[in-house]
């Protein structure tokens, strides 16, 4: 690593070790703070959440739980059971309670679905969110559909349908918008796809980033949830961690055929949500809260799109089109992704995701999340300086 001081080099080695130990997820800022205390992380652009939504939720919680003293009740008593929270969501999602399954984060539901409804063969687009293939048991065949960089990681509808027709899997996974590419499939295409693939037993459509997507200037929220009424094989998966900025309370849900929900509930998951997650879902079902949320969603979308436009102007960085709250970016000036990540962190306190460990992503890729407007400006400045190699050693 050129122009790095001894101290900086040491930190870079420390980071390398931490990355090697953390498998398919990057080390969390807590781990880094604990293991490399000399490193000051100012901005976490690795984690994919809307910070304005976190502010909103924290404020609501202060008013509803802390000022009133109701927090004690949330902590002291058992939360509601799975189906009771499902009933709460039924109204705002406009689907019958029997079709709703809530989870301790979407990861729990992904695990439950893959373990219970995937028997033979699964098709997964790569690069992807790793639990989808990590949870597959050994006797299930995994077929990867490689999204290619030459095509901007674009998802080719007809090509995909041909693959599914040829492979005849029992499960397919689609993430819309996709993590880590940010690629988005229009709702019209989703419906066409689901209609053509009615022979597949289980179609998982993960909409964890859907609140960041839009199809026109109105920036109206899209979802394929209504399709679950017609297509019994469709499962909509939803994490609340990213768009509501609340990964710590672990809240997610899925909409799926009532028989599948009944199947899962027979196997457990009775009190799998915490009191705080239940509190969140009560807010989520409240129209007044959703109006306040809509304001921070739109504000964040505007900031995010402006940030992406600026990032794509940075020399040495190729930014792929994204309808999520992060971009996949390729470093094109010869620097490695690890070096870019280390320099961003060590010299500027900005933590971005080195995508080296992502299956199906060969090359020097990083994923950069959008944060607040001010933080985005700092991320942009840091990226420019790192790629121009103009920094001073500390
Ligand atoms: C983060 C993520 C999830 C899981 O989120 P939870 O925190 O477990 O709710 C699911 N799907 C995708 C695509 C994700 O990026």
Describe what this molecule looks like in 3D:
The two termini are 14 Å apart. The mean pLDDT is 93. The chain has 14 helices and 13 strands. The relative contact order is 0.17. It has a 7-stranded mixed beta sheet, with helices on both faces. It has a 4-stranded antiparallel beta sheet with strand order 9-10-13-12, with helices on one face. It has 2 domains: 147 residues, Aspartate Aminotransferase, domain 1, CATH 3.90.1150.10; 209 residues, 3-Layer(aba) Sandwich (Aspartate Aminotransferase, domain 2), CATH 3.40.640. The longest helix has 25 residues. By secondary structure, the chain is of the alpha/beta class.
Jot down its keywords.
394 residues; seven-stranded mixed β-sheet; globular; Aspartate Aminotransferase, domain 1; alpha/beta; Aspartate Aminotransferase, domain 2; 2 domains; 42% helix; four-stranded antiparallel β-sheet
Summarize this structure briefly.
It contains 14 helices and 13 strands.
Q: Give the distance, in angstroms, between the N- and C-terminal Cα atoms.
A: 14 Å
Total beta-strand segments: 13
Number of helices: 14
Largest sheet: number of strands, sense, barrel closure: 7 strands, mixed
The dominant shape is globular
Outline the low-pLDDT stretches: none
> What would the average pLDDT be, to the nearest integer?
93
Total tally of structural domains: 2
Write down the Rg: 21 Å
- Strand residue content: 5-15%
CATH architectural name of the largest domain: 3-Layer(aba) Sandwich
What is the helix/strand order? HHEHHHEHEHEHEHEEEHHHEEHEEEH
CATH fold group of the largest domain: Aspartate Aminotransferase, domain 2
Neighbour order of strands in the largest sheet = 2-8-7-6-5-3-4
Q: Could you name the CATH homologous superfamily of the largest domain?
A: Type I PLP-dependent aspartate aminotransferase-like (Major domain)
Percent range of helical residues: 40-55%
Class based on secondary structure composition and strand pairing = alpha/beta
Instruction: Give the cofactors and ligands.
Output: pyridoxal-5'-phosphate
CATH class of the largest domain: Alpha Beta
